[in-house]
Batch of 2 targets.
Target 1
Amino acid sequence: MSNWEAIFQKWDSFEGLDKDLKTELHTIKDNKHALEDAFYKELTFGTGGMRGVLGAGVNRMNIYTVRKAVNGLANYLLANQVNVRDRGVVIAYDSRNMSKEFAVESAKVLGSYGIKTHIFESLRPTPLLSFAVRYLRTVAGIMITASHNPPEYNGFKVYNETGAQIVPEEANLIIESIQKTKDELTVPFLEKEELEEKGLLNWLGYEIDNAYLERLYHMTKMSEDVHQKEKNLQIVFTPLHGTAYNLVTKGLEQLNFPKVAIVKEQAEPDAMFSTVASPNPEEHQAFSLAIELGKETDADILLGTDPDADRLGVAVKNSAGEYQVLTGNQLGALLLDYILSHTNPQVYQNPRMIKTVVSTELGRAIAESYDVKTLDTLTGFKFIGEKINQFDATGETFIFGFEESYGYLISSFARDKDAVQAAMMATEMAYYWKEQGKTLFEALDVLFERHGYFLEGMSSLTLKGKEGSEQIANIMDAIRSNPLKEIAGIKVEQVENYLTSERMLMAEARKETIDLPQENMMKFILEQNAWVCLRPSGTEPKIKCYYGVCGKDKEDSEAKLTSLKETMDQIISDILEGNE
């Protein structure tokens, strides 16, 4: 009997097994492939938490794998933090199947250690969970969400006491603690009623929402007289069946934007996300119904948030009068310029903008034009949150943070990407530019004229299974051992090897240390303000290649971007064929 078969037998013979999971096991009992997939490995707890398909088995999201993760978290907290039981943990959840159940299961395990939990009575956005950790001064936070993954997924994200996602050092300690729990079926827990009787479970109403909305109200860059008047801007908003409806609509109302049309088919929470192929505002198809409503109402701006409301997509009319979704880089650049043009950086001590290494260099150019320094982090908003947390000690001031994958943070009262904040700022920015007689695409042209025509792209190659993992490793090893000296005829100026934390300055043949955590990434800084970054995905069997260029106009930039992409595709193909 193989190891996975032994684990299946343990589950199948467990008397107290949840009846729904028991039924599922019997349904797939004769399907060896399905059974093996459910039990051949444990669901991975990564740098921010875990995410997986719902179902029975150790490689699935279910009450037992959640209990095991929470058991590890509880022991980690008790060993590494102070006053854990009284400070407690706050838990929120989104609209997905089993989200509330997993939130309660988390409380049941924490309660068995005497750790108090605060759970929202109904679904809430991820950024509100981040805010709640800070507002309630809890020792940690848990968010039950799979973000914009397909409906069959759910997930479990952990936040530290600052309200930011845990960083790798913390994650590694939590993983060690989880691995000490040998049997997920026998993790200790208390029943919900006992938790309530002992005062170990506190249900949260709208106190946190109201405190968040107050901070949102004061975040505006509008003058007081503009703030107070009703504004003539037609808005369409879709929460894509998720958590953002209440906070976004109330936030717009208190900023005096009365003309808000809601995509009714997507307003209600729906775990199946039945009106979209994917509940991801990065993808144009997610805006299909919003675009229809936009045409009916002649909307100035369309807003779309993902299910847990940490990512925002925005669509506005292009030069042809058609609604087009801005890229994450474009919206980030526009937001940054609007914020800085309505802020006096001299008021702040050492103002800082933070972006990831694969986000547009237009952000750096904009920040420099306002005498604001840019800090780069690795991919993942947890690193932006970590950097903000360090500012109390360094005397720096956070101004704005963004990543190309539609994540933005304007004010640090939350410490994770926040689509509600971004929706408010994008709306008032659209109103500002409308008053100047411009759409956001025309405002983007202003930035290009001022700083250069920056354009970015990304391509990915899917390589599945054990063989695929080996191929991805081979590609990275080949490029790391023999760094490119030019790409598409453009000379490489710097090679940044994040795995060894080394930067090679090619002209000087000199190495520098990169002050970032180690990660399996390579970035090439080229002449002509271009760059290429190669990175294996942390969540999918893919290797991703990011590109950035700056040309004299759209055509020039598009040609350079295409050339970089075709060259990198060929280089990767040659490595796979053994011709490197």
Target 2
Amino acid sequence: MSRPQYPSAHRQDIVEEIHGHRVADPYRWLEDPNADDTKKWLTAQDELFHEEVDGLPGRDRLRARVRELLGAGSVGAPVWRGERRFFMRRTAEQEHAVLYTVDPGGEERALIDPMALDPTHTTTLDSWQPDKEGRLLAYQLSHGGDEESKLYVMDVATGETVEGPIERCRYTPVAWLPGGEAYYYVRRLPADQVPAGEDQYHRRVYLHRVGTDPETDDVMIFGSGREKTNYYGVGVSRDGRWLTLSSSQGTAPRNDLWIADLSASDPEAPELRVIQEGVDAETGVHVARDGRAYAFTDLDAPRGRLCVADPADVSPDTWRDLIPEDAEAVLTDFAILDDLDRPVLLAGWTRHAISEITVHDLATGERIGEVPVPGLGSIGGIVERPEGGHEAWFTYLDHTTPSSVYHFDATTGETTLWASPPGTVDVPDVEARQVTYTSKDGTEVRMLIVARADAAPGEPRPTILYGYGGFNVPLTPAYSAGTLAWVEAGGVYVVANLRGGSEEGEEWHRAGMLDKKQNVFDDFHAAAEKLIADGWTTADRLAVSGGSNGGLLVGAAIAQRPDLYAAAVCSAPLLDMVRYERFGLGQTWNVEYGSAEDPEQFGWLYSYSPYHHVRDGVAYPATLFTVFESDTRVDPLHARKMCAALQHATSEAGGPILLRNEAEVGHGARAVSRSIDLSVDTLSFMAAHTGLTVDGEAPRP
């Protein structure tokens, strides 16, 4: 493609003195989405995007194949309440998964179908939580991708709404008291009770009694006078005796934690006792059926450990290690199976991003076996029956296996397939290989290379390198229709397990945050160089892709090493790291990135902020920014400003710089058809700029 004629974007002469640095911001006007100039610019960018992308070869083929590969649908693990179970399922024809219940008599019923609620397919079911008896269901809905969840309660037997909507419940946990008459939850203060511009913050923990007015009758339990960016978690033990409450500042990898004995105090005024406060560790406590408190923590154990204590005193000096920290694997989950002559504990792990489950004696923690798993993939949460039992359920998926539900019986030690996705899918013959490489500072990093079974290093192919590298988020094997369509056509897809994630524990996370953020970008560049050195690809056939924090990664990649990449897809990105705290949920992330208000931390941010490192006359890779108008996490202004800067700066030898702006979707869940559209646009763009042919009949297994 030749360089397009880009829409006009005037440059403002804005230069600010910040902590001794002169910081230019020529496209600040694009921060205002409602300004006439911004609207005109967006309209022109949309026209340019369609001119450049709609006619790319292979789009019909890609669309059909991605849809085929999504044909299995999805199924989720069961959540049990006595003999009733709840689960999610989506067929190939459905835009969203539906929440079902199976009654004790075996009848299956749909409880919440987002498509029935909204024929435009823009309503999403964000979360749900049945009460302890399975009679009532708390659930949250949002619209148009804004993630502004509204909370409702349903009578499970009749399907009728008992109450709701309760507003301002974004990201709230729901912790039911026994009997279904009340629950603890988290809710933001009304906008008129907080300073202007802070309505996304100021959360509080409340006790709500079903059927009462939340605006007048809810009892505030916790949160007053604390940090405005705090997130809170609440939990109530199955017997209703123990309340646990956690608090973390934004997305910090540490939390404060309290416990209250509700049998000895009023649920409306629980006497909270400190478990940990001001400790640089992340800990959760669960009081189980056996009366013991299980502390899941990374205190003095970056890869995690599981401890036990008396709930009457759960201070860390009383903890006894049940499962100590492993030297290599990261502890991720646990479940208790106690209806056995010898009760056991199941422990979930990831070892270099690959999942496994081990079996331990519940009393001593001694390892006595392992749970057979289907392959080298990812395991979802391990589910047990709340009232006890000898069975567990978990989801499993990998690069060629859609998510399925497996059942483990501790009496036999066998794992069996319990629920498959409702549809079938014909997947290509591909292989995933884990490769270790060395980053700039000598650190060993791993990546998974997914390619056709007949592909081998030394035969360079169009390649997508994907990464995230932040917020303790691991990238583990996952089924992706887009990945399979790309690989089937002859490409290579690579997932890099960069520092900043949790693939190697909390130390791995901290090695990629705050002043060490550049490590993440160095790991990414080193992955690209390794792929080229081993003959998997070449610089002119290598694309990079990432979203959100991964969009920051992609922005930094093309700003720092434009010579190393031929194309980039940068989705919902953070790119102006000088002003990111002023928009969306930015202030909750300064514990991960740092704050521009602090001179030293400003130095970290400014040193890599992609928007501020765009240079005139550089041949930048072909770049597609994808943004979503209803995104309330990462403001689309980042992509708008960076797009304008690159369009102005890139040389004639550079690739096209495009912006895909989508309405009525946000940062998270979306309808399947919208996901297919996005996948087709991004894959066809990367194919066009890396030389992948997708318009012919791809080899089939």
